[in-house]
């Protein structure tokens, strides 16, 4: 399915999604497994940006499908305005299917007594909205979620240091290497997997193991169970995320 991240508090049975993908119906069902069903089908959605795979799942909260009641949607200012002023998304607000909660860059939100979320702006193709990644903090551990970014060197922060400061890092690996598409890949910039691993080549195995590559394009050999290129990266200590994996916070 399209890449996203779920967050579950197993004590309160609260559930959140990071990004609303076109596969949101199945992904919400996955979050209800293991006795985690509750009165709220979902307790909130955190959006990263206005590209097709990251917000269009909001349509399933609407009148034609779930008919949700004020589902919290967390979004940055430009992303919020985009939803509020463009149909069909604006109808979700008019019918009170969703309720926009505006976030601010580097401003932490306590979503309950055990979990905190902090959005941070990253450089990306921002035609309709800004783009953010997230730091998610639990009682004992923390994680980075950066599904889209242009290139690491364009970011004002040092990705190596950011990874060192968390326990898990779910990082953009849309493409494995240059030449993967028969297009000018400079016009659709993402960090190649090979670029990211080069940045971390002199770091400890403990740091490398924190990285879980996500957000694979259909051309990326990482979507295969086994491939020589993928295997070579895993042998260095890095990880490729799999659907359904769970990580404790």
Brief overview, please?
The chain has a seven-stranded mixed sheet, covered by helices on one side. Strands 1-2-3-4-5 form a five-stranded mixed sheet. The protein is built from eight helices and twelve strands.
Distance between the termini: 24 Å
Lateral strand order in the biggest sheet: 6-7-8-9-10-11-12
Query: Which percent range describes the beta-strand content?
Result: 15-25%
Structural class: alpha/beta
- Radius of gyration, taken over Cα atoms and rounded to an integer in Å: 18 Å
**Approximate helicity band:** 10-25%
CATH topology of one domain: Metallo-beta-lactamase, Chain A
Q: Count of helices?
A: 8
What key phrases describe this protein's structure?
Metallo-beta-lactamase, Chain A, seven-stranded mixed β-sheet, 12 strands, single chain, alpha/beta, globular, 249 residues
Give an account of the 3D structure.
The chain is α/β, with parallel strands linked by helices. It has a domain at 1-104: Metallo-beta-lactamase, Chain A. The chain contains 8 helices and 12 strands. The longest helix is centred in the first third of the chain and has 9 residues, at 77-85. The radius of gyration is 18 Å and the shape is globular. It starts with a strand and ends in a 9-residue tail after the last strand.
Layout of strands and helices, then pairs:
Blueprint: E1 5-9, E2 14-18, H1 24-31, E3 44-46, H2 52-55, E4 71-75, H3 77-85, H4 89-94, E5 98-102, E6 109-110, E7 116-121, E8 132-137, E9 142-146, H5 159-164, E10 168-172, H6 193-199, H7 205-208, E11 211-214, H8 228-234, E12 239-240
Parallel strand pairs: 2-3, 3-4, 4-5, 9-10, 10-11, 11-12
Antiparallel strand pairs: 1-2, 6-7, 7-8, 8-9
């Amino acid at each position: 399915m399209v890449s996203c991240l779920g967050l579950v508090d197993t004590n309160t049975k609260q559930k959140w999604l990071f990004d609303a993908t076109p596969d949101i119906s199945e992904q919400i069902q996955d979050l209800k497994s293991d006795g985690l069903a509750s009165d709220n089908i979902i307790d909130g959605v955190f959006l990263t940006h206005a590209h097709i795979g990251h917000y269009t799942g909001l349509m399933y909260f609407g009148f034609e499908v779930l008919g949700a009641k004020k589902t919290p949607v967390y979004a940055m200012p430009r992303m919020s305005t985009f939803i509020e002023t463009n149909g069909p998304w604006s109808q979700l607000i008019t019918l009170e299917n969703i309720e926009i909660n505006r976030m601010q860059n580097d401003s932490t939100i306590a979503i309950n007594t055990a979990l905190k979320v902090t959005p941070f702006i990253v450089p990306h193709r921002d035609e309709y909205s800004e783009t953010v990644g997230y730091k998610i903090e639990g009682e004992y551990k923390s994680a980075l979620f950066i599904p889209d970014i242009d290139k690491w060197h364009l970011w004002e922060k040092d990705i190596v240091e950011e990874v060192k400061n968390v326990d898990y890092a779910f990082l953009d690996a849309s493409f494995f290497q240059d030449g993967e598409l028969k297009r000018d890949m400079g016009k659709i910039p993402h960090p190649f997997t090979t670029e990211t691993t080069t940045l971390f080549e002199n770091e400890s195995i403990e740091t490398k193991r924190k990285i879980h590559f996500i957000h694979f394009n259909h051309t990326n050999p990482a979507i295969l169970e086994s491939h020589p290129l993928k295997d070579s990266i895993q042998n260095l200590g890095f990880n490729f995320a799999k659907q359904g994996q769970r990580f404790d916070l």
